[in-house]
């Protein structure tokens, strides 16, 4: 059984589709493409941290394309505004609000929360994507999601956490020693 798991992991890393129909080379557009069995309810609001580059920016682009209202908290509001304009070129009717927030400052987080609440919008989806210490932050994210899920289970709230695997974004693009492309394996 362990050998089978290793084979499945290697197939995934090489881009082959798994049971979901998606693999490591699947795009956000492909994963979120609507089919007759799934539709996105109207008027959903998503807050996406880390949406000024990489996975966060791609997530924001695709969710806007699918009709979600986006709130982009950003330390660098100029960069966030550039992402918003890039998204609007593809999705002109996209509703995207940029609000300044620095996740390293509790005062900044509180200001963000007050500004968001003043908008009077629902919070349907929170995508916590901003990070610097990759492995540690991903583990912390998983543990945090498990605890929140436990606490909110009785209220019917669903909490998910997703680890994208190794993706060539700015956080690892220039590092040596990581398998970041399609690997090739040979027998010694």
Automatic annotation (TrEMBL):
Gene3D superfamilies: NAD(P)-binding Rossmann-like Domain
Domain of life: Eukaryota
Pfam families the UniProt entry points to: adh_short
SUPFAM superfamilies reported in the protein's UniProt record: NAD(P)-binding Rossmann-fold domains
InterPro entries xrefs: NAD(P)-bd_dom_sf, SDR_fam, TIC32
Name of the protein: Short-chain dehydrogenase TIC 32, chloroplastic
